[in-house]
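Holo prediction — protoporphyrin IX containing FE.
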Amino acid sequence: GHYGLMDAAEAAGILLAPPTEREPDAAYAALHAHGPILQVSAPLYLVSGYAAVDRALRDPAMETFDAAQLEVAWPGWREYRAVALFADSMLRANPPHHTRQRRLASGVFTARRVAALRAVVAEQVDVLLGELTAYGNGVDLVGRLAYPLPIAVITALLGVPVEDRGKFRRLAEALTGVLEMHWTEADRVRADAAADELIEYFGHLVELRRAQPADDLVTALAAAHDADGERLTADELLANLALLLVAGFETTTNLIGNAVVLLLDHPAYADKLRDDAELATAYVEEVLRIDSPVQLTTRRVARAAEVGGVTVPAGAELVLLLGAANRDPDRFAKPDVFDPDRAGVSPLSFGAGAHYCLGAPLARMEAQVALPALLRRFPDLALAERPKRRARMNLRGWRELPVTLTR
Ligand code: HEM
């Protein structure tokens, strides 16, 4: 609709306002027309250019908002127990703490462990697809596939007993609100209660696994130490377990949901993917680019630096618009066109640099396994009605995905 009619300030207003169901495309296009970076206020900048976002993510002068910075920016933040929980995780740590936490976590969250999960994912997909028909011809694919799959996979990986999966879905959903820029008092109360419950749960599970080790991530992370004998503190251990749960859940749900809608909107491509599951790799990269499940992240400028041709001062706050960077016309020809045959996509959907998503290989694998399997099982799969977005700014996905399985 409004392409060309909106100016950059208006775009910033839309992006920073409480979220609605609207698509951000027109606002992103307006930002690109303005340039790679836009100053919104004295401390605040929106960064939309691909090269600028990529460089900022890799620049050691840019720090994540850690406990010390939260203390300055938001006195009283520790009362928000859901925020405080993640403050001890690697996502909210800068060097040297980040380096140590990340090294310990990568040491147990290995490519081998992810590869070994492929069979678990395939089996779960099979079970979930088999169950779909039990609900009749019309089902919600978010509720019946895109939600339960990542929860099953992450709980299996962590070593959470199957009977506790339902609880985890509820807790993860309540905590995910913290990743948004706007949340209500009700969201906060729910998230804080979930944080308490999760800490207690993981505290208990860690004790169990210390007494009786199992082949799972809780056991491995609790025992992790590197050559210098460095370990995670008790708080860091719980924070990172909670982070793995929350970071790996709704994001992957949205990747799968977004991918299904793009497939159903491009039936010729769906036919190709059904015949050749190898195409799933390229397909998932293009979905990540054009409909990024995570639309933004933030950084604080620790030392004055150059971003997109502008000098940003120490203390400035950057909103790095990953979703906009993925639509940068200077980086991608016809950025708003879905084209899985593009070469060298490299979307910024998983971030870049030191905090690059630890779970990227797992999320990719889940989508690469689930989508061709879905198409093969239900060749006549179709949207039953136009789905609606969740009213969110950062975690982009469909609220429900009503489909018919057969004609
Ligand atoms: C970090 C996106 C799935 C675990 C990140 C970041 C992004 C991201 C953008 C960087 C944040 C920043 O730099 O500020 C996504 C997307 C996913 C996904 C789009 C799904 C499509 C997962 C999964 C897991 C996971 C499945 C784990 C099981 C993490 C962790 C970090 C992270 C632990 C923090 C890394 C660090 O701070 O060093 N993710 N993620 N993510 N993600 Fe993911």
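READOUT: The pocket of protoporphyrin IX containing FE is lined by residues 64, 90-91, 102, 154, 243-244, 247-248, 251-252, 255, 293-294, 297, 349-351, 355, 357-359, 362-363 (CB under 6 Å).
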